[in-house]
Specification:
Blueprint lengths: L1 E3 H15 L2 H5 L9 H19 L9 E2 L5 E2 L6 E6 L4 E9 L10 E2 L3 H5 L15 E7 L2 E9 L7 E8 L3 E4 L2 E5 L5 H15 L3 H14 L11
Helix pairs in contact: 1-3, 1-5, 3-5, 5-6
C-alpha cells in the first residue's frame, strides 16, 4: 500500500515521544546538524527493508509478478530451469511451475546443504514436481531463481511467481511516498524509531522500540535472520 513519507515521519515522531526521554530527544540536534525529521526520513527505507525481509509470511502483501522469461538447463520443460530476478527483488512470495503439485514459498540459498543435492546424478534427492525446490543464486547476470524440476515437457509454464520488491521512496504529485506491506506499517514505524535511537547512542530506548516492532509482528525480538 502507498503511504506519504511525511505521514510516516509524523508517526515515528509520536513513537519516539512515547518511548524516549526529553534529554535523549534533545541530543538529536547534535547529530550531523540534521533536523529530527530529516534523521527520521533517512531511516525509513532501511527499516522497511529489514522488517519486510524478516516478517512472517502471513503479514506480506500480494507483491509483484515476475517470470516472463525462463531458461532451461537442458530441453525446455524437462529438468531444472532458471529465471533472472528483477533488480528490485527483496523476498520471494510464491513460485510454482504448472506441473508441480504445490507452490514453494521458502527458497534455499547456495550455502544451504540442500543446494548441492539439486545437481546430484541421483534423481531421488533432487527437487521434483511432487517435492519442488527453489533456490536463490548469484550469477554473472545477477540474482537468479533456480527451480527443480519439471517433467512434462514444452507445455510447462510458470503458474505462479510473485515477489516483494525493495521498498524505495518515490515522488508522486510533488510528495515523497513509499509502498509498504499494509500489515507491516506499524512494525516499520517502530523499527525506524529504533534506528533513530541507535543513531544517538540511546541504547535503552532503542531496545524497547525494537522489541515493540517485533511484538507487532508476533515475533520474539532477535528471532529473525536479519543481517
Amino acid at each position: 500500500m502507498e503511504y506519504k513519507v511525511a505521514d510516516i515521519v509524523r508517526e515515528i515522531n509520536i513513537a519516539l515521544d512515547k518511548n524516549m526521554s526529553s534529554e535523549a530527544l534533545s541530543n538529536l540536534g547534535d547529530v550531523d546538524t540534521l533536523t529530527l525529521d530529516e534523521i527520521i526520513a533517512s531511516k525509513i527505507e532501511d527499516a522497511a527493508r529489514t522488517v519486510t525481509l524478516n516478517a512472517p509470511y502471513t503479514l506480506l502483501d500480494g507483491g509483484k509478478a515476475f517470470g516472463d522469461v525462463v531458461g532451461w538447463d537442458m530441453q525446455a520443460g524437462y529438468g531444472p530451469g532458471r529465471i533472472v530476478l528483477p533488480d528490485d527483488f527483496l523476498r520471494l512470495l510464491v513460485f510454482q511451475m504448472s506441473d508441480w503439485s504445490r507452490p514453494v514459498t521458502e527458497p534455499i540459498t547456495e550455502d544451504d546443504a540442500r543446494y548441492a543435492l539439486q545437481r546430484s546424478r541421483f534423481p531421488g534427492v533432487r527437487g521434483c514436481p511432487q517435492s519442488p525446490v527453489v533456490a536463490l543464486a548469484k550469477q554473472p547476470v545477477g540474482l537468479v531463481l533456480e527451480f527443480y524440476s519439471c517433467t512434462q515437457g514444452e507445455n510447462v509454464y510458470v503458474k505462479m511467481a510473485r515477489y516483494v520488491p525493495i521498498p524505495k521512496k518515490f515522488i508522486y504529485e510533488g510528495e515523497a511516498r513509499i509502498d509498504l506491506c499494509e500489515k507491516l506499517l506499524r512494525p516499520i514505524i517502530y523499527y525506524a524509531a529504533y534506528l533513530v535511537a541507535i543513531s544517538i547512542d540511546n541504547a535503552t530506548q532503542a531496545v524497547s522500540l525494537r522489541r515493540q516492532s517485533y511484538e507487532l509482528m508476533g515475533m520474539t525480538d532477535g528471532s529473525s535472520t536479519e543481517g
